[in-house]
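Tutorial, part two.
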Amino acid sequence: MTLNQIIDRLFSCGIENADDEARMLAAHVTHLDTSVLRLLPDTPLPDPDGRLEALVARREAREPLQYLLGTWGFWRQEYEVSPDCLIPRPDTETLVDYAVRHLPKGARVLDLCTGSGCIAISLLCERPDLTGVAVELYEDTLAVARRNAARNGVTDERLTLLQGDVLRGDFLEGLGTFDAILSNPPYIPTATVATLAPELAFEPQAALDGGEDGLVFYRRMLQDDYRAALRENGVFAFEIGYDQGAALRALAGGCDCEILRDLGGCDRVAIIRAAHILE
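Running the prediction step on this input gives:
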């Protein structure tokens, strides 16, 4: 099988970025640099155990490239990814960027629905002065986050990984207070989940489905127990859907709610300031 044959197969099943994906899959198996592979488009690639063929077939079935590779880059770090966690996406870097630039020195953060841990871990890698707690419901997902913290040198002393149900919030007792509560929660309306790209069917549905209107987690995280967990002048910083800015402003009531846009110009992060919430 040649690189051009892989490209043709991926393109034929509707993968727009077939050229780059074919090179990444081939490099993953053959250990040839992608720049070298560009020079060998019609040279048969070594595949003695059929692993490359198997990966191409799985990608043709629209299994996400990130799961096939097993790791994926986010911010300045590399993360283990598996079907136990949502794949880290560039849109989420908007939230990390805000936190890196605006949290006070020595801040303590709470990351809800942490998944792979990419938000908390990248933030603590970038800001060695910060500490935090990251919460995830599912033990298998939490195990991925633990491995990612170790992979990226974030110690237990700086990041506590905790199993808990964000919709219940009973884990808050005894945790103390935080300068920021961050989250990329499930925010896709239930009826919309089934209409998403085929790759999304391989990702954990619980990490996507935000209830009938997509706002279930935001409503819960803006209730009194979470508000009380914020220090004076603390902030909520939530990733949101591209069309949810107005809805978050409404949920925030008369509070100071700033909507940040991603690089594509879409609503992506809601910043809600606790000083106004607690008045």
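The beta strands are 71-74, 77-80, 108-112, 131-136, 159-163, 178-183, 230-239, 257-261, 267-273. In part three we will examine how such features are distributed along the chain.
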